[in-house]
Write a structure and sequence with these properties.
Elements: H1 2-96, H2 99-105, H3 107-129, H4 133-139, H5 141-155
């Protein structure tokens, strides 16, 4: 009977060792799977952080461009307002003066004014369309700036 009892206890011991080995192998496989998942999660987190950083920099660049656009729009609006004021002033001047009556009363005065303006526009057209304009401007930049100032004064 001792032999049977020893045999039964030995079988139970072998079964316990076998089940422990199965449990241990299963636990190790789960640990490896969890380690793989953890590594993948860490890689995903790094990728996500990089993506967030890139998106934040793109948002900042977009906001900066939007701010620059707002400034430029306000500048253009201001220039448009000034141009509109000038247009209104010119309209008022032309409304005050009846050029038809003036040309009939003083044709020499009007003819002289028109001839001067026509010759000035002709000279400006020649300067603009001159093929040697770039070379002339490179040689005499100071002279060109001075003549531009006098041309703008005479047109005002």
């Amino acid at each position: 009977m001792n032999f049977k009892l020893s045999l039964i206890l030995g079988g139970i011991l072998l079964a316990s060792l076998g089940s422990f080995k199965l449990y241990y192998d299963k636990s190790e496989a789960e640990k490896e799977a969890m380690a793989t998942q953890l590594q993948q999660a860490m890689n995903n987190q790094l990728l996500l952080e990089k993506s967030i950083t890139e998106q934040n920099s793109q948002i900042e660049a977009h906001l900066k461009r939007e701010q620059e656009n707002k400034v430029r729009i306000s500048e253009l609006t201001e220039a448009n307002n000034e141009a509109q004021i000038q247009v209104n002033n010119l309209k008022q001047k032309f409304a005050k003066h009846d050029l038809n009556m003036l040309s009939m009363a003083k044709p020499g005065l009007i003819e002289r004014i028109v001839n001067r303006a026509t010759s000035r526009v002709g000279k400006e057209l020649e300067e603009i369309t001159d093929p040697n304009q770039a070379e002339a401007m490179a040689k005499e930049p100071q002279l060109n700036e001075d003549t531009k100032d006098t041309n703008t004064d005479s047109t005002s």
